[in-house]
Give the backbone structure.
Amino acid sequence: MMMKYAAAFAAMIALGVPATAEKWDMPTPYGDSTFHTVNIQKFADDVTAATNGDLTITLHTAGSLFPHAEIKNAVRSRQVALGEFFLSRLSNEDLAYGIDSQPFVATSYEDAAKLWAAQKPVITKLLAKEGLMPLFAVPWPAQGLYTNGEIATVADLSGLRFRAYNAALEEFATLAKAAPVQIEASDIAQAFATGQAQAMITSPSTGANSKAWDFVTHYTQIDAWLPKNIVVVNVRVFDALSPEVQAAVLKAAADAEARGWEMSKAEAATKTQVMADNGIIVAAPTAELVTGLQTIGATMLDNWKSNASEDALSILNTFQN
Ligand code: PCA
């Protein structure tokens, strides 16, 4: 027995693996080429480097470890230590999680940053009740409209099978008299190929990653909102780390948030260009379309306000003042 342990210990030393090394698995719904995934891989690499391998984080991309809808609960139940998901997917638990997916509330990076500053303390409190802690959040580029043919007014969306990624987009599609259908980002190309979806709203990142030119002709830059991905960690698991490793994780997280916002800004331009280069017609919205979309946005925000908690409403007040 002793020999066996001694041999194993010697082997670990030979491999340079510390005896106390922690290994975390990190699920994300998004694929390897998504800029968020590139960013969280760098986060994982930074943690390994800063802790000399005392903590290593292995990514599981494109929903390969847990489906999107289960990632938060997998972190909560400590099946994994941490995970990434689309923040506004939690809006069914509390509307505070969904404010970044309301049309025309925050449409620039500056406003998105201001909104996140107002939202963060409120959702930090909500997540704490579940034993979770946010590490960082990064927005997708502004969301635009993908269709076959030009969309000059909201009426042109009527009757289309409309790909949605959260409850807000489902409400949007319904108000536009389209037919919402929930589809994960990694399933978009197939959904359009099989006719399950005919139109969608998403970022140029997801449009380019899913090769939107294969299934739509037009990208209309409505720039309606900048929804975020968030990375959360289980508090008990985090607290069990040494203070040094905790500090390394928090430092890498702060760096990842700053880097992610810059990556997102760069994506907006480069991925719109990729789509244009592949033959998509990149169009500015007509004045009539903008008016129609703003009307839908106003209805959605009224609904949001009448169902939101005091704490959720305080996000909007902080943001607007
Ligand atoms: N891409 C993700 C979320 C928002 C975005 O730009 C998606 O389409 O599912």
User: Anything to note?
Assistant: The pocket of pyroglutamic acid is lined by residues 86, 140, 143, 165, 185, 202-203, 205-206, 227 (CB under 6 Å).
